[in-house]
Structures are given as structure tokens and as C-alpha cells.
UniProtKB/TrEMBL annotation:
Lineage summary: Bacteria, Bacillati, Candidatus Sysuimicrobiota, Candidatus Sysuimicrobiia, Candidatus Sysuimicrobiales
Gene3D superfamilies listed in its UniProt record: NAD(P)-binding Rossmann-like Domain (3.40.50.720), ornithine cyclodeaminase, domain 1 (3.30.1780.10)
Source species: Candidatus Segetimicrobium genomatis
Cited PANTHER family: KETIMINE REDUCTASE MU-CRYSTALLIN
Protein name: Ornithine cyclodeaminase family protein
Any GO molecular function: hormone binding
GO BP: any one term: carboxylic acid metabolic process
Amino acid sequence: MLLLRETDVRALLSMEALIPLMEEALRAYSTGGVAQPVRLAMVVEPHAGYLGLMPAHLRAGRPGPGPRIPETMGAKAVTFYPRNAARDLPTHLAVVLLWDSATGELLSMMDGRLITEMRTAATSAAATRALARKDAGILAVLGAGVQARSHLEAMRAARPLRQVRVWSRTPSRVQRFLTDMQPHASAPMTACASAEEAVRGAEVIVTATSASAPVLRGAWLAEGAHINAVGAPRPDWRELDTEAVRRARVYVDSRAGALLESGDLLLPIQEGAIGRAHIVGEIGEVLAGTMAGRTSARDITLFKSLGMAVEDVATAHYVYTRARERGVGQEIDFH
């Protein structure tokens, strides 16, 4: 069994390679190439924590453009503790296990925190490439944490950025974000005093917060905007108000997951503002060419991302394969 630490994963994984890999994983999921139950989730009281268990068996990548993902099986165990931000600890921590799907032999155990961080942003980049206007170049990022940083790298790969606006409820984190990220950004970056200031006129919007109540309002959205909503992983949490969801053509990573876990969608449904049919489709269907994406330059498009096990397992298989090729990692014998 090969043990891979976060430093190993970081040396073996790049956003450039990960975006097409996520496109293929999403296509495979939405075209029947993946066996994956909805994640098993448990709230950890009284610590306001969350534990999720996420297995997947990727039978084979479908024919089409992009990398081919061989058959692989794995699972991620992930924790989400929003209060860790005040402790200067990661809010998300995870481990990914990879098995030989033919024998059940454990092949690898690897850090999943970085995989979660990078594959989430790479999935948003895949959705942005598929749904955002081709000329979209004004990016608004709500949040200034780990996901905001990873999403800036991913959005640079998805569209040529002309301007980056950043807002967070903690101004000091925005300033640190700008200081750290401006040297790597391809466009000028601006700190915004409010979420509204960041969003008005933006062409691509990322909500990457730990908010449980809306930080993005539909009244602020410009025609033609695209939104990647990656926070609010619980059915009673939301980052977007009802009007933002109502105005948008909504795409998800998994219909089954979204209708169980996404407060951004479930709460407007409960209010009667939208129905389940307001979900146009899965982003994998758009990537596979079986579902329409943007239909006009005026459409507001929304990708609601909850994260799927297939994304973690496909990424882990890629990391494991490269580790074996390069002799990276530590061998451990359980017998």
C-alpha cells in the first residue's frame, strides 16, 4: 500500500492537468459510467462539524475528447468544521483510499485535503468553460479562503480575465489574499467593501464562503453572468437568495445529490419559487453534448457544486499512477 502525503500530492498534481480530468469524470458520471451513492453525511454536535463518506466505482471513461480514466474504485472521508477558520486550521480535512476494483486490494491512502481543494476549483473551471460567455473576463470572488485561492487559479485557466474583484466578511483576509495572489494573477485585483460592489457588472462569479445565509442576491446580477456556487453543502444552508436561483439556468454536478443536500436549491423549492424541473441538467450532460448549456448571451447560468466522489477517485487514481511512475510515496505493509 502506497502512502502519499499532501506534499507528495502537491508535487504530482496540477490545475492544467486536472481540469480536463474533471471534464471526463463529470461526463462519465452523467452517461452511466460511474456507480456512486449519494454521500453519507453526519453532523458532529456540539462542535458544528460535518463528516462525509464518499465512495465511487468509475467503470470506464466514455469515448470522446480528453483523458481516458481507467477503471478505478475509491472512497473519500472528509470533515468540514467551519470554526476551524478562527483556529487557523483548514476547514476541510480529508483522506482518500484507492482499491484495485478487481480484487479489493488496497492500493493507496493519500491526503485528500489538497485533492478536495483543487478538484473543486477544477470542476468549476470545467463548468465555466461550458457555460460562461466566451468574452467573460470580469471575475467576482466572494470569500478569501482556500477555495477562493484555488478558484482564482482555475478561473484564469477557464477564461482570460481582465479584472478580479474580491470580497469577504473579514477584510483582513481580503488584503492577505490580494497580497499573496496578485503576483500570480493575470489581471488587476481589487478589494471590495461589499458583496454587492463585487458582483454588480461581474461576468463570472464564484461564491466560496462558509455562509449559511445568502451573500449573493439576484438583484445584483448582470445579464449574461455565470455563477459557480461551491459553498453551502447542507440542505438548510445557502449562499444565494431565491431571486438569484430563480433568474438562472441551473446546472448541478448530480441531480440526486443536489435534491438531497443543496439548500441553495431546496429552500427556493420549499418556498414554491421554483420546482425541481428548474434544474436544467447536470454539467456532465452539457459536457457530453446531451444537454444544452447557455442558449443566449443574456442567460444567467448557475453551476451549483456539491462535490462528488468520482471527482476525488479520478484525481486520486491520476496521482497514484504518477506516484508509481516517479517512485514517490512510502510503502506500508499491513500484513
